[in-house]
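Exercise 7. Given the encoded structure of a 305-residue chain, write a plausible sequence.
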């Protein structure tokens, strides 16, 4: 199956319910190889994105606890030049955040031109966790304290307006919902308890939040229904098999970058004479044992799951 065909399979279709979508997919014969190939493409294209310096890419990862956000971000950025991307994780807002509008802390971290920005959770938490726990909204020092359907609808409009503005200005927005099953989440939370090296990842609140599973699923459904657009689409990725999940995500990112009209900037004609002069000087002082400065595309290990 071709890469673009895989991407279309998991691009959200309006009218679809999340509960009807798979949490596991067996359509890749060699998911690890597919992931590695896609990551190499991302690394190569990210250099071109950086050099072109007209576009940016914003990747948003959402999902239930233990859905695999951290591991997926790690795998799809392996080998990418760290000078060209930034990852931001969003916890509960601070007093400083609440002194500004609810999108302020996210807006100020949007990726610069030529960069890839990654949001591990995002402004979408403002219609997810606070919708399941509406008492949290009251801590946001809002002018309008009436929390009803109109309140959430306005937040959806704020998101889509902001994303449209970003896309109009060259920021490509991809949003991934990592769709893990409740049973698989239980297994992963137990694994964190069974392995001392993973204790730091365990939060007892995660177990309490499982009691609100259906409410979170409904909140995700409403958020995706109301904010999936042609310019900032949602992809619902089956997350029970991490390797498959990572391969699909990496493929979507690589395909998106390949569709951008990226160009390496051509030097000004007036500089070409200077380039020729520099080349002659370098050749005149050529070392007998030159150092190979070519990038090695296989200089990173992307095999660990």
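Solution.
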């Amino acid at each position: 199956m071709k890469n673009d065909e895989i991407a279309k399979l998991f691009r959200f279709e309006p009218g679809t319910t999340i509960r009807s979508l798979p949490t596991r997919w067996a359509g890749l014969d060699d998911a690890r190889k597919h992931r590695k190939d896609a990551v190499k493409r991302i690394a190569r294209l990210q250099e071109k994105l950086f050099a072109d310096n007209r576009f940016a890419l914003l990747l948003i990862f959402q999902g239930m606890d233990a859905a695999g956000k951290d591991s997926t971000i790690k795998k799809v950025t392996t080998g990418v030049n760290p000078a060209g991307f930034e990852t931001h994780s969003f916890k509960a807002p601070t007093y400083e955040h609440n002194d500004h509008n609810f999108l302020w802390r996210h807006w100020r971290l949007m990726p610069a031109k030529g960069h890839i920005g990654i949001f591990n959770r995002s402004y979408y938490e403002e219609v997810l966790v606070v919708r399941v726990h509406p008492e949290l909204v009251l801590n946001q020092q809002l002018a309008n304290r009436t929390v009803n359907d109109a309140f959430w609808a306005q937040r959806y409009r704020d998101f889509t307006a902001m994303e449209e503005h970003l896309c109009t200005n060259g920021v490509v927005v991809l949003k991934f919902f990592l769709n893990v099953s409740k049973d698989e989440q239980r297994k992963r939370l137990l694994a964190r308890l069974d392995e001392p090296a993973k204790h730091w990842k365990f939060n007892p609140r995660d177990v309490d939040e499982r009691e609100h599973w259906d409410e979170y699923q409904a909140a995700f459904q409403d958020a995706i229904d109301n904010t999936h657009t042609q310019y900032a689409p949602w992809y619902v990725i089956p997350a029970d098999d991490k390797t498959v999940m990572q391969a699909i995500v990496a493929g979507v990112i690589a395909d998106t970058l390949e569709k951008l009209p990226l160009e390496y900037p051509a030097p000004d004609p007036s500089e070409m004479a200077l380039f020729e002069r520099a080349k002659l000087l370098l050749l005149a002082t050529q070392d007998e044992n030159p150092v190979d400065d070519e990038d090695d595309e296989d200089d990173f290990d992307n095999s660990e799951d």
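Remark. The first helix runs from residue 3 to 10. Students should compare their own answers with the one above.
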